[in-house]
Amino acid sequence: MEAFQFYSPTQIIFGRGTEEQVGEQIARRGGSRVLVVYGGQSAVKSGLLSRVLASLEQSGLSCDTLGGVKPNPRLSLVLSGIQRAEAFQANFLLAIGGGSVIDTAKAIADGVANPELDLWDDLWMKKVPLERSLPVGVVLTIPAAGSESSDSAVLTKDDTLEKRGLGSDLHRPRFAILNPDLTATLPRYQVACGVVDIMSHTMDRYFNPITTNQLTDELAEGLLRVVISSGRRAMDHPGDYQAMSELMWAGSLSHNGLTGLGGKKDFAPHQLGHELSARFDSAHGATLSAVWGSWARYCLDADVSRFARFGVKVWGLDPTGRTERELALSAIDATVYFFHSLDMPTCFSELGCGLQSEKELEELTRRCTFFGTRTIGTFRVLDHDDILAIYRMANH
């Protein structure tokens, strides 16, 4: 094992009916005025929002609500939420939903706690370190982003369509309520996007230049095997409690840092996908599957044996009579085939954005490099020309 630090303070409250504990959980942490953040109408129509508000009332908590969060959450709604939270004098944020809702709540918590700073220019552009934030709790409804136990939040700036993430231990929720029953009516497409996102959070840690962390690797490989089998079951049997419960727990573990301990996070596929979701408002999970195969084939020679091990340990490939390169290529093919089996896109035309001109590919690349100020990745460090080459490979 290599040296590492691990910090995961989020209390996970897992199981049926656990959303009824939300008022108690906030009260015991000193919350008294709660801004509840949610997405569309599903939380309302399902009765979940009413049950949560009833729990808050029973615990003697005052609350206000902010709905309307959409996928690829926008800065504009966050700024409105900050004003609302300040007017209400909120001292606790509660997110009901998936990653977009949770990230919105985290950003609102940052803004309220730092009224003297500009949320985007100072904090999100990392000119000023984040040193304080309001506490956040979560009632998770979509297993995917892992934001319920992660240190990160991602926002898109409305006018420029820049998508940026901000990581801080202050972003880790105080608690996360995980009731798999709340996922029972999720559309098939959302489940599939979630499976891809969970896998990507794990693979973006697994594919890194350090290969001496045996236990970390085994944890990642085991999580991936469970996500693959549970993902298949969830797609074949919508609402299956066992499948969704495994995916829900895997989503939290995939992004709390556990599956990458001692390694160097790569996250190049995430950075490549972020530009697609910002530019075309595509679902996050779909952008990841659309670029992963191209990224993997482009980066294969950085460590062929890593992909070969991935094929044997995760996909169960038989190494008998096969070279490492053959195993590695088969592992990439197996992953892309699995994404196809979920009806997830594996190239630009399947993503729905259409084939892109060379000018548009260049613009995507400029944005991915933050306009020439960074490289991405650690498994293979990717500069402007590398990123452009991967986008070209996916442009079919």
Global geometry = globular
Arrangement of strands in the largest sheet: 1-8-5-4-2-3
Number of helices: 16
CATH architecture field of the largest domain: Up-down Bundle
User: What is the name of the CATH topology of the largest domain?
Assistant: Dehydroquinate synthase-like, alpha domain
Q: Count the strands?
A: 8
- Strand percentage lies at 5-15%
| CA-CA gap between termini | 41 Å
Mean pLDDT, as a whole number? 97
* Helix content estimate: 40-55%
Domain count: 2
CATH superfamily placement of the largest domain:
Dehydroquinate synthase-like - alpha domain
The SSE string, one letter per element, is: EHEHHEHEHHEEEEHHHHHHHHHH
Q: In terms of structural class, how would the helical and strand content be classed?
A: alpha/beta
The parts where pLDDT drops under 50 for at least 5 residues are none
Which CATH class of the largest domain? Mainly Alpha
Q: Rg to the nearest angstrom?
A: 21 Å
State the major sheet: 6 strands, parallel
Keywords: Oxidoreductase
Protein name: Iron-containing alcohol dehydrogenase
GO molecular function, one term: alcohol dehydrogenase (NADP+) activity
Organism: Flintibacter hominis
If you had to describe this structure to a student in words, what would you say it looks like?
This protein folds into 2 domains: 11-182, Rossmann fold (3-Layer(aba) Sandwich); 187-394, Dehydroquinate synthase-like - alpha domain (Dehydroquinate synthase-like, alpha domain, Up-down Bundle). With 396 residues, the protein is of the alpha/beta class. It starts with 10 loop residues before the first strand and ends with a helix. Helix 7 (188-206) packs parallel to helix 9 (241-254) and helix 7 (188-206) packs parallel to helix 11. It has helices spanning 22-27, 42-45, 48-58, 75-88, 99-113, 119-124, 188-206, 214-236, 241-254, 268-280, 284-299, 304-313, 324-341, 348-351, 358-368, 384-394, and strands at residues 11-14, 33-38, 62-66, 92-97, 136-140, 152-156, 163-167, 175-178. The chain has a 6-stranded parallel β-sheet, sandwiched between helices. A two-stranded antiparallel ribbon has the order 6-7.
